[in-house]
Amino acid sequence: IFTVLINRYVHQGTIMRATLAFIICMLLVQHAFADSHALRAEEKECGEHMSYKRISSCFSALYIKADQELNDQYSRLSNSIDAENRSNLVTAQRLWVKFREADCLFSEPRKENDHIVSSGHSICLTRRTLDRLEQLENYNVKKGCNGCAW
Asked: What pTM did the predictor assign?
């Protein structure tokens, strides 16, 4: 469909080409965040269960999906940056993993093996992972401009 649009409108001037380029870029950006958006929708569904056991099970399954997608985004980013910045990414990711674990232990300090504790920990791990996934998706969209405001 893009090829037809490009062939049809490319000869109508610079404004049409610029508009088409903008639309294509927006579609690509939207696609880049599709994974985290879909997982956030699943997160909402997990919260709608009526028992702690089902909530915990749902969030545990979602955490596995989110962690896999996080690893995929991390690999994409790692493969697209120079060696020096890759070293910074590795350091940041290792520290982030430690932060996630410490933060989730803080958010649910009880040690009992009940469903309330289990669901609280699963929810925390999932939410922190989704937060980081969104950050890495954003970095992947802005290749080479991790700290830029635009």
From this structure: 0.70
